Amino acid sequence: MPLLSINPEGGQLPKVNIPTEWITMVDPCIKKMQEQVQVELRAAVSYLAMGAHFSKDTVNRPGFAKLFFDAASEEREHSIKIIEYLLMRGNLTSKLGHLIKNPMPVKESWETGVEALKDALGLETNVTLKIRDIIKECETPTTKCKDGVDCEQTYDFNDYHLVDYLTGDFLEEQYRGQRDLAGKVSTLEKMMKTQGALGEFLFDKKLLNGEPL
User: Fold this and answer.
1) Which terminus of the chain has a lower count of CB atoms within 10 Å, N or C?
2) Does 78 count as an annotated binding residue?
3) Is 75 one of the annotated binding-site residues?
4) Is the C-alpha dihedral spanning 25, 26, 27, 30 positive or negative?
5) Which of 67, 72, 75, 74 is nearest to 39 (CA)?
């Protein structure tokens, strides 16, 4: 069993002096990763709003509700993975509260399933672009210029591990998710064009039962 540090007098434990040479993430990368936590949480809350909307008795589309509630859980897991990565790199030792800033959903109601799927695709596209921004920031040295001249390199650090982590663990999933949503939009629009409201009802049943679309 691991030993616990206990302050016999109570109160806050004294600060420990830990070497910081192992902490190598540069500030721009840290800032963007911290911002990405908020991006993922906003997507999660938006999906929760979608799931709640389609769960209402006046809408009653349980297949859509399941799809969006599952997506909310996935985005929440993404935010946790980013926090865990920052902890692993030694960049979350204080001020954890600023990572979560009361995220709000993009909207609260949708007229049709197609509208919601298109908004979901927009959410995923935004998340993907933000991840790509982090990769660009952290694999390319940054320069600061005044009026296009007198350029000065602010840092020269390529964070290979972070870039590889985001590319392998996040981008692959993002691109597959975007393609899946785009396909669902296409299928549902065709079904509604030929079958009207019945098309959305049948599509919802397929979602609920996990049938291929």
Assistant:
1) N
2) yes
3) yes
4) negative
5) 75
Tokens standing for residue 100 = 């979560």
Q: Tell whether residue 124 is among the known ligand binding residues.
A: yes
List for the chain the helix, strand, coil content (%; round to 5). 65, 5, 30
159-196 pLDDT tens trace = 889 999 999 999 999 999 999 999 999 999 999 999 99
Structure tokens at 58: 């006046």
Residue 195 marked as a ligand binder: no
Does pTM surpass 0.70?
Answer: yes
Domains, in order of start, for the chain: 27-93+103-141+154-195 (1.20.1260.10)
Cα 19 vs. chain centroid, distance in angstroms? 32
Segment 17-72, tens digit of pLDDT? 877 767 778 888 899 999 999 999 999 999 999 999 999 999 999 999 999 999 99
